Amino acid sequence: MRSENGLQGGGLLRAMVASAIWFATSPAVSAGFSVDRTDAQLTLKEEGRPVFSFNHGEIQPPNGGVARSGYIHPLYGLDGDVLTDDFPSDHPHHRGVFFGWPRMTVMGEDVDVWHLRGLQPRFHEWEEIRVEDDTASLRVVNLWRPEGSERPAVEERVRYLVRPADEAGRVIDIRGTFSNLTREPVVLRGQTGAGYGGLNVRMDGGRPEVVITTANGVLDGDADVVEPASPWAAYTSRAGDHGPRSGVAIFQHPGNPGYPVPSWTLRHYGFLGAAWPGQRSHTIEPGETLELRYRLLVFRGSADEAEVAERFAEFLDGRTEQR
Questions:
Q1: Is the dihedral of CA 184, 121, 24, 34 positive or negative?
Q2: What pLDDT, in 10s, does the model give residues 53-107?
Q3: Are 131 and 22 in contact (CB under 8 A)?
Q4: Residue 96: closest CA among 173, 204, 175
Q5: CATH number assigned to the domain with residue range 12-317, chosen from the 4 options 2.60.40, 2.70.98, 1.10.3470, 3.40.50
Q6: What radius of gyration do the chain's Cα atoms show?
Q7: Can you give the pTM of this predicted structure?
Q8: E strands along 132-244, which residues?
């Protein structure tokens, strides 16, 4: 087991030393998990197969647009197929698995971290990179800075807790905390009339035969609100015209404010988002923190074949609770 801890605050020298040690000794390996790291990405693997890559370097746009860092892409299926997209031509601001809101007020200014306008999230440091026999735990700090400022306004801390895959799926628990570092309120809002915001997964829209399922059944079209409020949603597609079906589900954690939130961003062109706080707004006062928790279930087959509803019930029962 290899672990990196405590790389925060003024720990620049410690971070540099730890980074040098890491590059000299990578990959880190445990019974099932391993980690490879480059200047731009950290890739988590299980039994040699990639689980996901976290982009800690600044990723440049291929055809213009805005650079970005501090997010997951690619997210892989259980058989190594790529599930997510980055810089898609239809929405080039979309980026793998990320937290973001299209309407925010920071230091009295309207900004948009969803489209990367006025507020830029950037990777800051790793707090933990740890692999054990039955889990992999990654803790990362991203800082959201207003354009033209070196002083961060929001600190984003995310923990990814990954468990070994079984025949049906792989669990990735995500805990995001957002701290207001300014002296004025930070306000989060979804898009007027459409929600958006919160935890987002930009799926690979080039994969065919998309099916989106919620606790209420299969959706006929796109949706911003699911009523009765569904605490989970799943997106599946095929890996090629005749390839196997696979997908991702998002489970809302019952500890999240307003659970279950009926707002979702569900798009057949390739988007699975737990839109929080939906049509409402949420204020983070100076010095305060917002915490949001979700589970990603990466699975083979359809939502029914993977028994996503049953896996969500297990999640609620706490049989596979976050630690």
A1: positive
A2: 999 999 999 887 789 999 999 999 999 999 999 999 999 999 999 999 999 999 9
A3: no
A4: 204
A5: 2.70.98
A6: 19
A7: 0.89
A8: 136-146, 154-162, 169-180, 186-189, 198-202, 211-214, 217-218, 223-225, 232-238
